[in-house]
Amino acid sequence: MTPPQAWLRDPPPPPFDLTALTGRVVVVAAHPDDETLGVGGLMHAAHRAGGRLELVVATDGEAAFPGLDGPGRAALAAARRRELDDALDELGLGEVAVHRLGMPDSALDADELAAALEPLLRGADAVLAPWTGDPHPDHAAAGHAAAAAAPVTATGWAYPIWTWAWLRPDDPAVPWRHARTHRLDDDSRAAKRRALARFPSQTGPGPGGEPPIVGPEVLAHFDTGAETVFRAPRAASAPRERFDELYTGGDGDPWDTRTSWYERRKRAVLLACLPRERYRHGAEPACGTGALTPALAARCDRLDVSDFSEAAVAAARAAGVAAVRAALPDAAALPGGLDLAVVSEVLYYLDDATLVATVDRLAEAVDPGGDVVVAHWRGWPADAPRDAGATHRVLLEDPRFTPLVSHVDEGFLLHVLRRA
Fold first, then answer.
1. pLDDT value of position 250
2. Tens digits of per-residue pLDDT, 105-149?
3. H or E stretch covering 222
4. Of 46, 103, 403, 408, which has the maximum CB count within 10 A?
5. Contact 389, 413 (CB under 8 A)
6. Does the keyword Zinc apply (predicted)?
């Protein structure tokens, strides 16, 4: 068994930002006690910070001791339900809604669970679920189900459980790049200790004298004063319908591209970073409202402008931009013979395969010696498969492109690369 001290890292993962859990937060657990073990302190802190928490428990954990007969399993299920209620009281979460699905313990089906979760996760701002790589099949199934059922607008977080005891920190499956650590204050740490003590069916001997499921060596992993979670990225590209909805709502400018200081400053920096005063043929896929387009057009003899959202194209045309509808990596979005391609605030929305195909298309469409500009917000949109840093690394590590300009600040990343 891996000891807790083996997991200490220098430097530690970045701190978890509690503002990510101030809306409607749904915590998914495979068994009663998973949530308390993995994120009990985080739930306690999020609730105090104003998060509206709900808990979904897939099973009653009746199969924790496989030797039990039918009545014994029923009694254990009832005990674990009571234990969870008591633990939530200790965490100050006694009024939190608990959805008990009663699915078979040790036989969770991810597809069936996803179907049950879909209406419960609808409208959630954040979802916390077991990590899909956790070495317990029910935990992995719960993680996959939550990822499949969560709305595109929800930020996903994954919490490990048996990972700490059964895996090792150098296991390549552990996604350290996505890790964030929450430090429990004294109040949260004490509340979590009290809550864990409310699970005697798991922390004490079994009904037949079996060793505890969660014995002292395992419990030590959950009494370190810290909880680590992983950002759970979407696997699929952000859907077009999501952007159509954004561009047709409100004033048709969901990111305030025409007025916000972030957007105005980013455009000014981008234009200042262009190595050449004038380009022969440029392309601006994902033009959005077309706020950048006029300034780019003034630097290009020809500029092809597009977006994959019909609503965005309509917004750009309403602003006088001759945009067409085209999705990356289509040639209509990146025609051949370019000496400039400006790809801003879009690549992190693409799934891995589409991003690779888009980078390949950039290499084909941009002539040798031409420039590629990529710029992205340094946050991580809920509906994006990756953040700005991971997105830019794909191009920076591609030998077909040579970095010329690197701009990194608290708001955005911007790189200019020359086609080799």
1. 87
2. 999 999 999 999 999 999 999 999 999 999 999 999 999 999 999
3. none
4. 46
5. yes
6. yes
User: Is the per-residue pLDDT at 249 higher than 90?
Assistant: no
Residue 112 tokens read as 């069936």
Order of strands across the sheet with 300-307? 324-325, 300-307, 279-284, 338-344, 366-377, 412-419, 401-408
pTM, rounded to two decimals: 0.93
- Confidence band for 17, pLDDT divided at 50, 70 and 90: very high
Closest Cα to residue 381, out of 347, 330, 343? Answer: 347
Q: How far is C-alpha 358 from the geometric centre of its chain's CA atoms?
A: 22
Q: Could you read off the pLDDT of 44-70 as tens digits, one per residue?
A: 999 999 999 999 999 999 999 999 999
Tell me how crowded residue 216 is: count the other CB atoms within 10 A of its CB.
Answer: 9
- Answer whether 98's CB lies under 8 Å from 57's CB: yes
- How far apart CA 201 and CA 179 sit, in angstroms, is 31
Read off the amino acid at residue 154.
A
Q: Give the model's confidence band at 291: pLDDT under 50 very low, under 70 low, under 90 confident, else very high.
A: very high
- What is the architecture of the domain spanning 4-231? 3-Layer(aba) Sandwich (3.40)
DSSP label of 15:
B
CATH 3.40.50.10320, the chain: domain bounds: 4-231
Query: Where do you find CATH 3.40.50.150 in the chain?
Result: 240-419
